[in-house]
Amino acid sequence: MRLTGGTIVPLRAPLRPPLDTAQGRVATREGFVLQLAVDCGEPGLGEASPPYWIDGRPLADTRAALEAIVKKLDDCREPAELRKALLDNRGTGHLTPAAACALDTALLDLEARRRGVGVAAILGGAAQTPLPVCALLTARTPAAIARQARGARARGYTVFKLKVGAGTPGDDLENARALRGAVGQSALIRLDANRAWSFTQAVSALRAIGPQGIEFVEEPLKRGAAAELARLADAAGVAVALDESIRRVADLEAFCPARGPAPVIVLKAARVGGLSRCVEIARAARARGVAQIVVSDAIESPVGMSAAVHLAAALASAGSAVGLGGASFGIRLPGGLRENAAVHDAPWLTPCGPGLKVSPRRSRE
Fold it and tell me: Which domains are seen in the chain, by residue range?
């Protein structure tokens, strides 16, 4: 199998309703799909949709990096050679994390389909394992959140994610109460603050919300030093999860001390530079005592969502729900690209292959 060319397909999807975060409102999701054509079989697909509302990096940087990848194909036609260059950070130019993610995913997709297996197997994991999906709630008022949550609960969801920090602490508390009342005591609730609070604000907000039973809160602090995050978890009584703070293995040394409380780690391939790098970070995190590693998409299309499901299976994260924010908005692929419709609204998903294929399952059974 040899590469014969590459195509960059723009993605642009309105988010209805817009997603309100502590970093501002996201009304439209933009990104790209990289399509790598080969001399036999279907092309490999990878998504490059960076979280630009968080990192502030222009989308044009990702487009330029993808163009550099396509140009590189003139010199490098072997998928294995191109993937090795990516992993070794050689010969692929200056790639943004999202562009590196697209390249890594597309090459993994090609290799998995060549072998007739799922991407999870190529990454060292087990396919055919049903994984629970976390439902991202997009409603804005307590009543609307309760309605949305009840609907998701009725469809089989058992884990729910609520954005906090965009409004007042009172708003967050009422929203959390409405959510807990709608889903019952057995469901898990996650919070995502997107670095909304100072230490004092975080302690106050989380102590108020904590009685609702929170699995963890992602990135609560504006300037989250490792010592402050550990103190916050103790002071507020809510587990802290690191998302934007972990971009590479070296970040683990500061935030995950060998001795001390180990936070939850949330891995997004678009943020760290691909599925392979997520596996590398996860292995290093577990070596430092991190017990819970959560995989999430970055509000992506079915390509990125399917990749997240395969990554979660590869990391043996069956006990921790996969975050698929893109499913909450029904983001679709442009015409002409193969669609994996199973990811749009399924409380359980199984990475089955070949390639990035997934199938819906209502439960482990």
Answer: 3-115 (3.30.390.10), 122-360 (3.20.20.120)
